[in-house]
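fyi for ur records
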Amino acid sequence: MARALPRLRSARKPCDTLGVSVVNKLNSGLRPLLDLVYPPTCPSCGVAIAEHGGICSTCWNGLEVPSEDTQVIAPYIYNEISRELVLKLKHGGKFSLAALMGRMMATALENGATDENRLLVPVPLHRLRIWERGYNQAALLATELAKHGKGQVCLNALKRRKRTPSLGGLGRSERQRVLSGAITVNAACREKLSGRKIVLVDDVYTSGATSSACTSALLEAGAKSVKVLCFARVETD
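which gave:
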């Protein structure tokens, strides 16, 4: 049976110890029943694995690591395996994958003394798209990163003023044209953004058009700096 991906420990406050202990005991007691009813399988290829919340060793070894980038952080290249995970989260309704993918993204974001001051901002979806899909996958990933002590979440810092068509298949200049004026800062969040180091969170970094539009809006609102963190990035020649 394939080995599951190890879990990272989440930073907890001392006052949470009792509650966490109770939850852990409940999880431990119910896990055999859960495994019996829903045997753990790799979310990418479906092969049986040792426990829920991981991926098989074959898929794990198939994930490719991109070259370093100071402004765009992504633990993996967008290939067949990472694409399968992203699409199941984004369009397949498998929102439980956010915990696994967020944990994997957390390993790529360096720790620092100012983590508590770092602001995690998800790339926004238009409200109609959220109603259709039921959730914003970037917001789910940002929430998971916060659970691992990577910063504070500000889910509504950015908003899409207009619904844009799918950017798939569009060139960089066309993407920029479509996104022009589409993404703005929520006025209620301007004060919170001022002077902060921002991590912009998304699932995939493609051409950079969406990230650029978000970054411009955040910097205009007074953010000190903006880095982009995605689960995977498309490698271009």
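Strands lie at 72-73, 76-77, 119-122, 152-153, 158-160, 183-185, 197-205, 225-233. thats all i got for now
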